[in-house]
Amino acid sequence: MAVVVVAMTVMGVIIGTVDVVFVAFAEAGGNTALRSIVLSLYAAGSCLSGFVFGSRTITRPIGGLLRVGLVATALTTVPMVFVGSIGALSLTIFVAGVFFAPTVILSSRLIEKNVPQASLTEALTWSAAGLRFGTAIGPAAAGPVIDGLGAGNGFWIAVVAGTALLLPSVVLRRASAA
Question: Which terminus, N or C, of the chain has the lesser number of Cβ atoms within 10 Å?
Fold first, then answer.
């Protein structure tokens, strides 16, 4: 349970960072009219994949799929630091969003599978609280980077969080191997 809360907190840092940085990136490039469109692409990728993934019956081990989702979410942060245009940012953000919702769905399903029914609401609340806490940390960490080093460099906060997201995937691998 603690591993899932940590993973959701780190995923919150990623989404909170991305929300702030791509708005700053669009504004720095003089594309203020496009910032809401770019912002919606992250949500669109996540919504589309969440709908498709959430409507499917999962037959594979949830822990293994969650590890894949965590690693994919981490890896999709890396291209963000290399984007140079609003078009490239839009594509990168959409692809990153595709992995977000399925990973959150898998986190919830892993909790549902492993937590006693009497504690399920509390466990899901901890997971959701971790996600929201991380969403507050991301902008707080990215803001000073954006102000001091420029908008695009704020994506490094997402990359650092992505790197931290690999730790829960390792712990989940060891737990499922035991």
Answer: C
